[in-house]
Design a protein that fits this description.
By secondary structure, the protein is α/β, with parallel strands linked by helices. The protein has helices spanning 16-27, 64-71, 92-109, 130-145, 165-174, 192-203, 222-233, 244-260, 272-278, 305-309, 319-326; strands at residues 7-11, 31-36, 54-58, 76-79, 114-118, 150-154, 157-158, 177-181, 186-187, 190-191, 210-214, 220-221, 238-242. A 7-stranded parallel sheet has the order 3-2-1-4-5-6-11, with helices on both faces. A two-stranded parallel sheet has the order 7-10. Strand 4, helix 3 and strand 5 form a beta-alpha-beta unit.
Length: 327
């Protein structure tokens, strides 16, 4: 590769959102460092560019030295690191607050031109959710250290590797009931590649700095999102709303169960903090800057879901063939 190519460091670049950002940066001709805790598990990112253009490197945003080494010499930095629940040393504060601030501070010290930080639409310093508070605190530290950063706050992100529609589609294969906490809570799912496009525009300097709330073209209730998913996977299931008071009790038992066995079991079913998040709508504010301000037209879910949820149908990729035979 030519030594004149610009360099981007993408923290968490092998994750769900990060890999789409890395792929787009590579197509734009950038050399990309994919900064992850386990480079040996991220070797697949090399295929996103020419030989030597994309490389996984060791870095942990909780560690000063490895973070600085990953940033040094980069023209742009994108931080995609985030956790949905706390496990071991991976806590909201050290990762989403202190880690975010560390990346921004070191990026400024190393003379990085552009910084993009992936946050969350629920970020709120006054929230009763520790996740949301940590996201807001992280944003504050980012802007303090790097005032010219672009901060992206996505709603639920969907795409082939998502942990949202795939999770409930899998459940629908084995259960006649889909239990939902906050069935009437509103969400505005955004396609992962739309989010990646916005991030790359920030990294390349094509978009103005600032905070953007990222959502899809339509806001829908949790219940309606599941109805749409069930139509795609061709399954009839009972959607059952779980009252919040019951959900809080269930989540308490799941959390305590994890602690009782010393963390050997990670509660990935439902945490008390997630119940708090599900009690609030997760949609773009009326006066917020959004995808349209970047010239990006949000992709409808209907244009994408069938392309990857078909595997959850009873006959998988042969469903269309069987349906045509019935006619």
């Amino acid at each position: 590769m030519s030594g004149t190519l610009k360099i981007a460091t993408v923290f968490g670049g092998s994750g769900f959102v990060g890999r789409y950002i890395v792929r787009r940066l590579a197509r734009e001709g950038w050399r990309v460092r994919v900064a992850v805790r386990r480079p040996n598990e991220a070797l697949f990112v090399r295929t996103y560019g020419s030989v030597g253009q994309v490389e996984p490197i060791l870095a942990n945003i909780r560690d000063e030295d490895s973070t600085r080494a990953a940033i040094r010499g980069a023209d742009a930095v994108v931080n995609c690191v985030g956790i949905l629940q706390e496990t071991g040393k991976q806590k909201f504060g050290p990762v989403q607050e202190e880690g975010a601030g560390r990346v921004a501070r070191l990026a400024a010290e190393e003379g990085v031109a552009q910084l993009v930080h992936i946050s969350s639409l629920g970020a709120n310093a006054d929230s009763d959710s520790a996740y949301d508070r940590s996201k807001a605190a992280g944003e504050a530290l980012v802007l303090q250290a790097f005032p010219g950063a672009m901060i992206l706050r996505p709603s639920i992100v969907f795409g082939p590797e998502d942990a949202f529609f795939n999770r409930f589609a899998t459940l629908a294969r084995f259960s006649v009931v889909l239990p939902l906490v906050g069935a009437e809570t509103m969400f505005q799912p955004v396609y992962v590649d739309d989010l990646a496009q916005a991030a790359v525009m920030g990294a390349t300097g094509e978009a103005p700095a600032g905070i953007y709330e990222i959502g899809g073209p339509v806001a829908r209730s949790f219940r309606n999102l599941m109805r749409g998913m069930l139509r795609v996977v061709r399954r009839r299931r009972i959607i059952m709303n779980i009252p919040f008071w019951i959900a809080r009790i269930q989540a308490w038992f799941f959390d305590m169960g994890s602690k009782a066995i010393g963390g050997l079991y990670t509660n990935k079913i439902l945490t008390r903090d997630q119940v708090k998040q599900l009690a609030r709508d997760n949609v773009v504010s009326q006066d917020a800057r959004r995808l349209s301000d970047l010239g990006i037209e949000p992709t409808p879910m209907e244009a994408v879901l069938e392309s990857y949820l078909y595997c959850h149908r009873e006959s998988g990729q042969y469903t269309a063939l069987k349906e045509s035979a019935v006619r």
